[in-house]
Amino acid sequence: MECYAKSATKSLSDNEKNEIIEKINSVIEEVQDKLTLSEKTAIDNSINEFINTTEKGQVTLKQHLEEIVICAENFFEIYGRYFTEKEKSLVIEACRIHDIGKVNRVFQAKIGNRNSNSDEKFNYEIPHGYLSAVSISKDELSSLVPDCTLEDFKIFITAVYHHHDREDKWESAEIKQYCNKYYLDNLKDYYKNENKKIMSANVNKLLFRNNKTSVNLRIKNEIWEKYALIKGLLNKFDYTVSSGYEEAEVASDIDDKILVKNIYEYFKLHNMKFNSIQIYMKNNINKNLVVVAPTGMGKTEAALIWADGEKCFYTLPYMVSSNAIYDRIKRTYNYGNVTLLHSGSMQYFIDESKRGDESAYNAYQRSKLLSFPLTVCTVDQIFKFVYKALGTEIFAATLKYSKVIIDEIQSYNSEIIAAIIYGLKIISDMGGHFAIITATFPPVLKSLMEKYGLIENVDYEYKDFSTSAGIVRHWLDEDYGDIDVDKVIKSAKNKKVLVICNTIGSAQKLYEKIYDIYDSGLVEETEIHLLHSHFIKCHRRILEENIMRFSKDELSAGIWITTQIVEASLDIDFDVLYTEMSTVDSLLQRLGRCNRHARYIPTEANVHIYVTKNIDYIYDKDIYKRSVDILKDYTGRPLVEREKNEYINRVYCTEDLIDTAYYKNIESALENFKKINQAEYSKAEVDKQFRDINSVTVIPDNIYNQNIDFIDNCLNIINNRYIKKDIRSIIMSKISDMTLSLPIYNRYKLPELVDECVIKTRGKDIDYIKQVEMNIHRTRRMYEFDMEKCMGRGLMKKEAQNSIFI
């Protein structure tokens, strides 16, 4: 009997297609006026793609497996140098056998194989991966893979068994019974071998199970790494072919080194020479590196030169900074084989000017398949494997033959720092390479890296370029109490003034004070704006674009009041900085927003620091206190760049921190990673852990009421069965643009003035099988933003909608 890999694609007549297109256009028409030109173009492209879709018959299982094997073999022709012969053989054999279990009668009947006994009723189905894993013996694998050990066999069958994340509740006797009833005869027929047997005892050789009842003994890291390699690459090649692609990698830059050549040409064209950091990283392309250098020394170019055309992941702490680096690589250095991967990159791809004629949805899917030579991303996208959840092995496997760049490691919280350290150790053990490039690298991080297996001059090389940096960009002064409003206003008469507050509340209050002074007419008014994370997404985007435009305009003068969100995410350069005191790492990031490009040498204070009260709930109290106590040694005079590193090294001295909560939190997180059992977490749980999802998505009531019909139309479009995924993504993004996130401090209670219910469609029939859940709550908190003036306080903490400010 001929067996198939999946169901056939339903064939539609031209009349049926036209009918569906009419329905799509009718619902899209309801929101046309709120769509951008690029969004309309993306939707038109999606409809045209649907029109040109041809019928796809059922692919035979043999053809499907051959395509995956060919995909793997083609991959190893390019990247084979990173793998042993045994590793390559195990991966290819896993590709060859992983779906064999689909020949069972139950599966074939389910996908509509007419050759199967379609009249028979089946009460249950055992997943095909489990059947595939009992379809091969140790001797059979040994005949295919020379020097295959029992350990290799256990790793192999575990990778095949778990190649999908399925409910794992069957024991070997149940699997044997199912095989004898529904599988064995078809298996014999498929192989044309009457002696083919089922090895149900293989279930007892699995490294671990995926259920709540099995007791999984923790396996050694080196065993898990071998398993992750086979499972991860198997998933990579399977996903690639199942998505309709032939090659697992979009392109390779290993031999041509196009990006490196383009950087060289750019430097030559602009009469630029490589500096010491760029030369150092060029000369150490085969080493793991930790490089410390002041802002403005070209760390990005140095890191890209170090990557040397090998597959690379450039990670940054924030989406905005990821977008900026992506654009820089693509536009400044004219490199097309770069992609962007973070939770907002789908919306970014919708702009056709960034992706040419390629569908935004397809571009995003290729990014998720980790297919590009260079990916700019946030760390949560690739370091998920540290939790050893099923489905995350593809990241570890891909990083084995890649280089990883970690930009500004000190910007992360303790658990993310621990995940990075733990993950870099695994990457290094598997054969991948890493480079940490940062303006500051606290000594405590070096100590923790050593404690958990990453030792300087053994596993990586450390180089600090800040010690020789004699540039003076800043002159600090220090005061106690609130930021001096009169000084801020005076400075803003002819300068760009940046104010950074520790909380949104204090930023809003300061904005109100200055706004009221200007509004009274007592002083000459100048430009003033407020930026923080409690603006809805579309307004925040406008503000971010405006602050960068303001920063670059040499003739501009005025005030921007902000919070920590500008510390590392935006490339801005102001003349003067007024800031509330923070921990030293945060403070030095803030300094980088003032006189960033050393436009002048200060002859008086250009950074004014105010030590305020009530900061314990924002920053670690021990680090904050040490930062305040040591600050006095660096105020009242020009600050040389190398002294910044000296300052942070004194605050983060390992010996002085070993008993603090800061040190213990990172150490505890690292210990937890060591203790995590394989399959202890689900992939969904890992996403929550990594993103620290203690927040709720809200839409302010006045925004909701102004757009109620549009939102309702969008929800109906999202839940229409005929709408394609890429169109649905565009429409979902339109609603998402009207939202923001609020932190949750009590997981059992929503924030004040936030409704329990989520918004849903009103009054129209939903024909989508399962209504898409946006999980957005309405909030009665006051929200204000004037689009024309680009002004307002955003979402207020306790004010309800009946109060008016602007």
Automatic annotation (TrEMBL):
Keywords for the protein's UniProt record, in alphabetical order: Antiviral defense, ATP-binding, Helicase, Hydrolase, Metal-binding, Nuclease, Nucleotide-binding
Name listed for the protein in its UniProt record: CRISPR-associated helicase Cas3
Classification via NCBIfam families: cas3_core, cas3_HD
Entry keyword Nucleotide-binding: yes
InterPro entries per the UniProt record, alphabetical: Cas3-like_dom (IPR054712), CRISPR-assoc_Cas3_HD (IPR006483), CRISPR-assoc_Cas3_HD_sf (IPR038257), DEAD/DEAH_box_helicase_dom (IPR011545), DEAD_box_RNA_helicase (IPR050079), Helicase_ATP-bd (IPR014001), Helicase_Cas3_CRISPR-ass_core (IPR006474), P-loop_NTPase (IPR027417)
Protein's organism: Lachnospira hominis (ex Liu et al. 2021)
Keyword hit for Ribosomal protein: no
Domain HD Cas3-type residues, every copy: 54-240
Family statement drawn from the similarity comment of this UniProt entry: In the N-terminal section; belongs to the CRISPR-associated nuclease Cas3-HD family.
Parts of the chain that traverse the membrane: none
Family matches, as PANTHER family: ATP-DEPENDENT RNA HELICASE RHLE-RELATED (PTHR47959), CRISPR-ASSOCIATED NUCLEASE_HELICASE CAS3-RELATED (PTHR47959:SF16)
